[in-house]
Amino acid sequence: MVLVLKNGDDKTVVKAIEKKLFKHKSTEGFNAKKFNGTIKLEENPLSIQKNMRDEWQRNLR
Hints:
By secondary structure, the chain is mainly α. It is 44% helix and 0% strand. The relative contact order is 0.07.
């Protein structure tokens, strides 16, 4: 689709073009709240993070 907006067009033309461009609103989205509190950890999150960051150093030896 090609919409042409020329220099000097009035506000009604601009509004009509905006309406055509933005008529499809995205209803999809990521609902992070539905996953809140669902992961059960057996280890302290801070120690997990430290272990993950130190993995590359342990593999070099």
